[in-house]
Amino acid sequence: MELYILSKQDLSILSIAKVSDYQINLDEETNAKSTFTLIKTEGLKKDNFIVVNGLYRQFLFIIDEVQTEKGSDVVTITALDISNIFDRKVIEKNTDVMTSNSIEEFIANTMSENFVNSDDTALNISYIEIEWLTSTKTSVATNAENGLYNFHTFLTNCRQYKNIYTDFKFEDGKLKITISYKEEPTELIDTTLSEVTDYNKIYEEDVTAKVQVYIREDGSEYNLYLKTDRTTTTNKDDPNRASGKIEVISVDTADKAEEEALNVIKR
User: Which of 12, 131, 193, 235 could form a disulfide with 23 if both were Cys (CB 3.0 to 4.6 A apart)?
Assistant: First the structure.
């Protein structure tokens, strides 16, 4: 089996590798992990993408962890379903769209506002294209706490309880996402993976480059950004901003926003 490793920055192909052993688990409801064993190659880094072209469909993953056997070029990759690019808290907004228009439109709008076309262009995922194919007027609970909810968990609940699926495909240099109602059986592909008992784990620092603070008393927001010299700024257009992940937190009053945002970045 052959797999492609793609950059999370621009979807460029970093390497093509032959897989010696693998276990693919497509149970998204439990966020199950898949495993691939191969010879060390370029691009084996947390959050880069893995593409496996099957006979009838693509299998898309995001790298979660990389392990190397001591004294060997053999690498074992632990990967998650690509939907985990949305594994982040977002502010609960405009949930009435689910019943007035559709769940599909609400999902598309939330993806666009928080991940693709936000006002923070430095952290937008510009290669994503979104389309919804059906319109289902009903609602799914966000299970928000203090005005925040995990968007990936919400997508899983939409699929589990309302048969609203979010499908992904790499095509023409884009990550194309379609949202639609359908009924599909859960797929499980499982092969025997040889046990790796002696390995080195590669630890990567997951840098928080932005903290978005939702202020509950008035619904406003405060944003704090990390710079490459390890200082912080509130200027989203600062040329020395660091790259990394976004954390979203909630505070009750505005006077706590700066302190709590700084605490997150310091962690």
Answer: 193
